[in-house]
TrEMBL record:
Keyword Cytoplasm among UniProt keywords: yes
Organism whose genome encodes this protein: Rhodohalobacter barkolensis
Job description of the protein: Catalyzes the specific phosphorylation of the 3-hydroxyl group of shikimic acid using ATP as a cosubstrate.
Protein name in the entry: Shikimate kinase
Complex and partners: Monomer.
Length: 181
């Protein structure tokens, strides 16, 4: 029954640490569709890790590559895609993704994001920040990106629920949207 639920690609957006990859993989498995992580695709295309791209070329070059790949890949996309936390930083990309498939915002509070990210050392946007700097950076990024995230077709809160509970809620909303549209 769930195998044919998804009529178009589903793009997960949200902050780093919101659970896009974890939810995306589990949802793809449950729906029997392919799973793709945009960060993995960027690393394959560039032959560099995300931290290497940031260190060698800078954030602007990373964002340019990210936008080009989103626009190119989304046109023939199938299955579930986890977008990078900063992938939706302009209206053109946000509009494009929404035209190509379902855009779902994985929503978390700043406190939840902090607790999930405080021991993370492999994320260039927050590397080497102390506790206070990290809290401030998370809130700043969240404030900056929220106007784009909130344009998603629908959102799912992922603060305390189990992955299964979050996926079941997402599927419930997805069924509604698939039937309605």
């Amino acid at each position: 029954m769930l195998e044919n639920l998804l009529s178009q690609p589903l793009f997960l957006c949200g902050m780093m640490g919101s659970g896009k990859s974890t939810i995306g993989k589990a949802l793809a498995h449950k729906l029997s569709v392919p799973y793709h992580d945009l960060d993995d695709i960027i690393e394959q295309e560039s032959s560099l890790t995300i931290p290497e791209i940031f260190n060698q070329k800078g954030e602007d070059a990373f964002r340019q590559l990210e936008q080009e790949l989103i626009i190119r890949i989304s046109q023939t996309a199938e299955g579930i895609f986890s977008l990078g936390g900063g992938a939706l930083q302009n209206q053109q990309v946000t509009d494009h993704v929404k035209l190509q498939g379902w855009l779902v915002f994985i929503e978390c509070s700043a406190d939840t994001l902090y607790s999930r990210l405080k021991n993370s050392s492999d994320r260039p946007m927050i590397a080497n920040l102390n506790e206070q700097e990290l809290k401030k950076k998370i809130q700043s990024l969240l404030n900056q990106r929220l106007p784009y995230y909130k344009q998603a077709h629908f959102s799912i809160k992922n603060d305390q629920d189990s992955v299964d509970d979050t996926i079941n809620e997402l599927i419930k909303k997805l069924k509604f949207y698939e039937q309605k549209y």
